[in-house]
């Protein structure tokens, strides 16, 4: 369900809380996914005599009942009220718009009324680094000082004086409604892990507000041993959204589903038969007349050691018009088995060989057996 964002323009600190309180009853009947951006008016412009403030829950602000009006008492009461407001932002999930007042080695300092909270660099939206990819995060942070930023409170611990913000969470609330399963986006690889790659999605405004995961199994139709062999930080890729979990704020992406599944190929598809085809495009069917590609004979011997595999033999071969790769490539066709016989294809240089594999295993079992064999073969 889309997230609707309402911006309440330019109100003072105490008046916006009063305004929010007046809307709290109405909001209780609306969708829980609605988010509000509540802009900050600089504390320096607020009156030094604090009028009564109404909290997000609609209850009177503690300052209203303070009898001791000394500056120190008012300051303590104000801070207590602001910590209470921070906890209510945390519980409600409302978006807060605060001014960036500074930075340090780990993140940004963001004003929250009389308090100053912390926005760690990992909680920044990827839009900043994607917009200026050649700048360090420290330089980006310095350029943001003085600007307003939309954030969510993700920790409000008054006892330990920890007020932590996240711009990523605010961006998810505002933009995740734009993303649906089946959508295709241009993206930029943010980081690469053993289990996959995180890709920042470029939305309709040209900025990268959201990040999704391309699992290692969705990077390529080929067997991927190390994602870093295929993807690197900063790479531009095209991805397809295959799952959106709004409860866990997760977007799952795929690169391979935008490409034709090579596992559907047969020798006839790799080397299509045309009237102009070379006479030797397809070799004889007798395996005694075909010499396995370099390295393939060892793989065949190892496959025969796998439980459930009865026979492996080179069935046919053909020659492509150009060299695709000098390295040996091996893949399992998704062509339906005939009498428990599956088809493997091997390619090296111009040669393509079709291998017939007789087995009691299903496709997934064969894939696992192939993976074990390829791990054993140097």
From TrEMBL:
One of its GO terms (biological process) is maturation of 5S rRNA. Residues 25-42 have a biased composition (Low complexity). Residues 25-54 are annotated as: Disordered. One of its GO terms (molecular function) is mRNA binding. Residues 93-168, 182-256 form the S1 motif domain. This is S1 motif domain-containing protein. SMART domains: S1 (SM00316). Pfam families: S1. GO terms for cellular component: chloroplast.
């Amino acid at each position: 369900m889309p997230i609707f964002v309402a911006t309440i323009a330019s109100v003072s600190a105490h008046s916006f809380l009063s305004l929010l309180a007046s809307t709290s009853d109405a909001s209780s009947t609306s969708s829980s996914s609605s988010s509000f951006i509540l802009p900050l008016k600089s504390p320096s412009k607020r009156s030094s005599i604090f009028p009564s403030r109404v909290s997000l829950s609609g209850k009177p602000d503690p300052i209203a009942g303070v009898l001791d009006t000394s500056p120190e008492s008012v300051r303590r009461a104000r801070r207590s009220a602001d910590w209470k407001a921070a906890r209510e932002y945390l519980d409600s999930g409302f978006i807060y718009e605060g001014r960036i007042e500074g930075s340090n080695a780990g993140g940004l300092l963001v004003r929250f009324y009389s308090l100053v909270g912390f926005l760690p660099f990992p909680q920044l939206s990827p839009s900043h680094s994607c917009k200026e990819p050649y700048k360090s995060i420290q330089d980006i942070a310095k350029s943001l000082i003085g600007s307003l930023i939309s954030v969510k409170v993700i920790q409000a611990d008054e006892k330990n004086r920890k007020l932590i913000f996240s711009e990523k969470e605010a961006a998810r609330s505002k933009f995740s409604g734009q993303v649906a399963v089946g959508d295709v986006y241009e993206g930029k690889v943010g980081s690469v892990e053993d289990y996959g790659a995180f890709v920042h999605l470029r939305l309709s405004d040209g900025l990268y507000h959201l990040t999704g995961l391309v699992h290692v199994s969705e990077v390529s139709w080929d067997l991927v041993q190390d994602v870093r062999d295929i993807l690197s930080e900063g790479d531009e890729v095209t991805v397809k959204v295959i799952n959106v979990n709004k409860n866990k704020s997760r977007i799952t992406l795929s690169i391979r589903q935008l490409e034709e599944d090579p596992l559907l190929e047969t020798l006839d598809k790799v080397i299509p038969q045309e009237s102009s085809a070379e006479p030797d495009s397809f070799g004889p069917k007798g395996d005694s007349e075909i010499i396995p590609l370099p390295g393939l004979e060892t793989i065949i011997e190892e496959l025969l050691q796998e439980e459930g595999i009865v026979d492996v033999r080179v069935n046919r071969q053909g020659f492509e018009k150009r060299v695709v790769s000098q390295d040996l490539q091996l893949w399992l066709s998704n062509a339906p088995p005939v009498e428990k016989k599956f088809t493997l294809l091997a390619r090296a240089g111009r040669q393509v060989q079709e291998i017939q594999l007789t087995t009691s295993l299903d496709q997934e079992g064969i894939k696992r057996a192939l993976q074990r064999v390829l791990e054993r073969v140097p």
